[in-house]
Amino acid sequence: MNKNQAKTITLGFGVFLLLGIFLFMFWMAAFPYDEVEHEREEIAAEKAEQRAKAIKKLQVEYMSEHH
Prior knowledge:
The protein is mainly alpha-helical. The chain contains 2 helices and no strands. The chain is rod-shaped, with a radius of gyration of 27 Å.
């Protein structure tokens, strides 16, 4: 490998690294982490699970009463 090839490889790697950094910065700016939103998602998931359990209980009660 001569000097020109080494320079080309190094510059190519540098450009690739910069593009990766810019992509990461764009992603963080476009989709920031929101602590409150994630807490709401967890609460909503818990409530959905509770509703599913309640519906299942009602279904079991209905089946035992009507069949």
